[in-house]
């Protein structure tokens, strides 16, 4: 399953919805948000926030390229190098 | 004569510099030592039909009802509310506020919500439509401005006050955390230095834990910190509310593997402004401050078997205090009982 379909748009085609995207997923304990810039290099930010033992714990990841994996397990899992 | 004019100019510049430094003094409200006192409250379990998510998404409310977002958008709606019930009501009726879709009067998933201090409006943001949705005290939709993602892009916590949206700077290589978009003049600015440089870990230390508006200020708490920044109308940090020591900042690093990643703690779970008071939820309980940022009380919640309730989220209004125990259950208690407890403090 492709995690991040990076798309490129020309300036003329850029609309509000083409600038960025966000995928949100919740598990029993964690909130996972994948924010993706579709233009300007297509970088992404993955934010994970989990409720554990009466506290919130957070992690953030940055990256670019395409990873094959899933965001809905409370963590990002990927194999090999990202496609570019 | 010229020499004297030059000396006079230097003295004037020096005095102006001193005045500017004095005006930039940050007021510190240290209430850490008062947090040892607490009062116990016993809320009731409140059973609602629909669970909500994302997991850390905030409850919102006003005097009309409790507003939640559904777990999945496929359920056909993106926002609904439960009217404040009678104390004996179980499984109250769910009222739809917004349906999901791209047509008029529809929205995509609501990513975040907030309540304004100026009018008690509830404001939500949907990425799918790039709109903010403002609801008044009757939960009537009063406006839904379209905002270009280049001006401000909400992916998590945000707040709104006096025509200005405040949210995390996203996709930006600027070394700032908070982005402010002023709808009155279409000007965007960023403030608050990042704790960790872009691209390094622990990047979560640049995230907002909670942000709210009060009648006079914006209050901002970051992940890993127990100090709440007070931001004035000139977008300067004019004060800090100290509820403990911030976690030390580690040396920024680039992880070689997932094992290198270290989590950061969110100490300030959530803040709300209501009835001239500021409510701050932490692991230790709900701390209440007055409008001058002075300690009023700290409330700890227990169920009727005297077991402490671990509260992950809350929302308060003039009818009810709603609490989220863990991620699954909602508890509630009449606001009048909270006021009575605070009066005893």
Walk me through this protein's architecture.
The complex is a heterodimer of chains A (84) and B (345). Chain A has a four-stranded antiparallel sheet. Chain A has one helix at 16-19, and strands at residues 20-26, 30-37, 44-52, 55-63. Chain A has 84 residues and is mainly beta. Chain B is mainly beta and 345 residues long. Chain B is built from two helices and 28 strands. A five-stranded mixed sheet of chain B has the order 1-20-19-18-17, with no helix packed on it. A five-stranded mixed sheet of chain B has the order 2-25-24-23-22, covered by helices on one side. In chain B, strands 4-5-6-7-8 form a five-stranded mixed sheet, with no helix packed on it. In chain B, strand 19 and strand 20 (237-242) form a beta hairpin. The longest helix of chain B has 22 residues, at 2-23. The N and C termini of chain B lie far apart (67 Å). At the A-B interface, helix 1, strand 1, strand 2, strand 3 and strand 4 of A face strand 21 of B. Strand 4 of chain A pairs antiparallel with strand 21 (264-266) of chain B, so a sheet runs across the interface.
Fold topology:
The complex is a heterodimer of chains A (84) and B (345).
Chain A: H1 16-19, E1 20-26, E2 30-37, E3 44-52, E4 55-63
Antiparallel strand pairs in A: 1-2, 2-3, 3-4
Chain B: H1 2-23, E1 27-30, E2 39-41, E3 44-46, E4 60-61, E5 65-68, E6 77-83, E7 95-100, E8 106-107, E9 110-115, E10 122-126, E11 131-135, E12 141-143, E13 158-161, E14 164-168, E15 176-182, E16 187-193, E17 208-213, E18 218-222, E19 227-231, E20 237-242, E21 264-266, E22 270-274, E23 277-282, E24 285-290, E25 295-301, E26 311-316, E27 320-325, E28 329-334, H2 335-344
Low-confidence parts of chain B? 14-23
Number of helical stretches of at least 4 residues of chain A: 1
The assigned CATH architecture of chain B is 6 Propeller
Number of strand elements of chain B = 28
How large is the share of residues in beta strands of chain A? 35-45%
Q: What is the N-to-C succession of helices and strands of chain A?
A: HEEEE
Radius of gyration of chain B, in Å, reads: 22 Å
- Trace the largest sheet of chain A across and list its strands: 1-2-3-4
- SSE succession of chain B: HEEEEEEEEEEEEEEEEEEEEEEEEEEEEH
Major sheet of chain A: size, sense and barrel closure? 4 strands, antiparallel
